[in-house]
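During the second year of the project, the team shifted from modelling isolated chains to modelling whole assemblies. The rationale, set out in the original proposal, was that interfaces cannot be judged from single-chain predictions alone. As a representative example for this report, we include one of the complexes processed in the last quarter. Its constituent sequences, exactly as entered into the pipeline, are reproduced here:
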Amino acid sequence: MAYSLFDIAGPIMIGPSSSHTAGAVKIGQFSRAIFDKTPSKITFYMHGSFANVTAGHATDKALLAGIMKLKTSDPNIKNAFKLAHQQHIKYEFKKTDLGPSYHPNTVKVVLEAQGKKKMEIIGSSIGGGSAKICKINDFDVDIKAVAGKYKYLVISHGNDTAVLSDVMKHITNFGKFRIAGIQSTHINDHMLTVMNLEGRDLYLYEVLELEKIHGIEFVRSLTRLEH
Amino acid sequence: MAGHHKKMKYQFKTSADLLKLAAKYKMPISEIAINYEIETFKKNRKEIIEKMARNLMIMREAVKKGVNTNKKSFTGMSGGNAKKMYQFYESRKQKLLNKTALVAMSYAMATGEMNAAMGRIVAFPTAGGAGTVPAGILSVAEGLRLSDNKIFAGLFTASAIGMIIAENATLAGAEGGCQAEVGSSAAMAAAGITEMRGGNSAQCLNAAALALKNMLGLTCDPLGGLVEVPCIKRNAVGVITAISASEMAMAGIETFVPFDEIVKAMKNIGNLMAAELKETALGGLAITPTGCKIRKKIGLPPIKSL
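Output from the structure prediction step:
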């Protein structure tokens, strides 16, 4: 893959660390999109370097900010605790050891909504603002995300990838987009697909239009979380 | 990728390629860089300039905020020095360097201090080395009263140099030590500044080479593994290295070792460098008694101090 000048000049980010701050925001954003609800309680189990150097790098604020849909470049990341309090989101950080198979910068996020819907997501920040989701509930997955580089669509749908060609058709009709990558994972009886897009931000009505496609459960645009 | 297409005219992976293209098309490095981006990513010129303009806006914002605040970082290790430096420049105290150099030092620390205090910055090329390029480019533009178009030229040239280093070595402290972070940004700034002030392409690369050569061997051993000490002040001295290298290049001084060879040397030195000195906080400054105090303060497991 050829370098872009903007791989050098960028990304725009909130400090202090691309792997401990920007990458952590990314994990939070993905957790929220996959959970598909506003959580009322979140428990973060911090592993490895995430457990050790959390405060100095503001990894805790960054994770929480991502869950509240803040961008990796949002100056409000530093006020994440206050924002969570205003939105009545309870949160807790615990140290844990997930084992040697995980990257040192890893967190297990447990999300709950009014004590009902519970979901566990394990994500790692793998350097330079890149993150990957390794596990959703009991299922191993491999979903990668780069801070500030692409716009993401997280699509939950039935066990059939044919529906994705309908999604792509709609996106092409919306305007000039390039689909830079697609990753699909089976979870129970449905599938989760992440689409990386290059182009402008998607409008809310366009996302809602995608959700109307037969066979789609939900579409979450992380577009507005990016540059 | 599009790179294999026959009609691609502006592809470069080394400084030798870059110099050849600049001579062939009679263009400055910045224009080769813009054309590279246009043809590789099928973007138009306007989109590319607008994207850089947004970076420039964020850089100016960080510098301005950083120069005007005493705010400390979470650890209390950094904050307020950019302001001190700027006030020194404005004072009537005796100085050795000129306005441009003193302002550059202040701006470099401003960006680093904003980063440490969770402000918004452009990682150019990384968070650790983010102070040097904006500081060099903005202070020289102010000092020489240059337009934003010249600033863009400086930023694109700096990016092209960074791309060559990324392609042939690394920009990450964890792989190459600080020479790859502040060293690279000093080389990038040196080339950018030199183009802005009217240097030719060869002079830009001489400046980049002289700056990088002087930063070889620099380790990444910050206290507590945090991007604060010595990173922030190192950016301030890094930009002075860039300015000095540009002065030497404009005086007609050439590098004896070509830029591409220096990049290879940097990679080799990075490979030979002990892991303890590559962003792990297990050696050097990080394990001094002062470094160990910071480890304790931020909850890192204890380690034997020097």
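The radius of gyration of chain A is 17 Å. The longest strand of chain A covers residues 117-127.
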